[in-house]
Amino acid sequence: LLQETMDDTQVKIQTMDNSQVKTLQSQLEQILCPHAFECHPFLVGWYNDQVSPKFHLDHPPNILAYTIIRQPSMFERAFLPFLSSLSRTGLHDECMLHSFSKVHNNF
């Protein structure tokens, strides 16, 4: 399996053995599962074989990818705590800025 890592200027591709894939899976699960997300690995080539060409991923077939699925409890376990971590004033201010930016853009 290959892992593709991108930064601002380059793409790095490295080979991963089964233990590295399991480690990566475990790390993703430790981060995402407490917030009610599932993560499932797949190979780009397998995915591209399953879907029509317009949905193909433009990466080599042996690149490891993950699909992340939100569980129903994500709202309570991730979204509400996220909202409560923001100040009420901050949300209100953001809403006001968004609304007034529409006015600004028209004049």
> What proportion strand?
15-25%
* Number of helical elements: 4
State the total count of DSSP E strands: 4
| Helix/strand structural class | alpha+beta
Provide an overview of this structure.
With 107 residues, the chain is α+β, with helices and mostly antiparallel strands. Helices cover 50% and strands 22% of the residues. It contains 4 helices and 4 strands; from the N terminus they run ββαβαβαα. It has a two-stranded antiparallel sheet. A two-stranded antiparallel ribbon has the order 3-4. A hairpin with a 4-residue loop joins strand 1 (2-6) and strand 2. The N and C termini lie far apart (54 Å).
Quick overview:
With 107 residues, the protein is an alpha+beta fold. It has 4 helices and 4 strands; from the N terminus they run ββαβαβαα.
Q: What are the key terms here?
A:
extended, 4 helices, two-stranded antiparallel ribbon
List the helices and strands and how they pair.
Blueprint: E1 2-6, E2 11-15, H1 18-32, E3 37-43, H2 44-50, E4 64-70, H3 74-85, H4 88-106
Antiparallel strand pairs: 1-2, 3-4
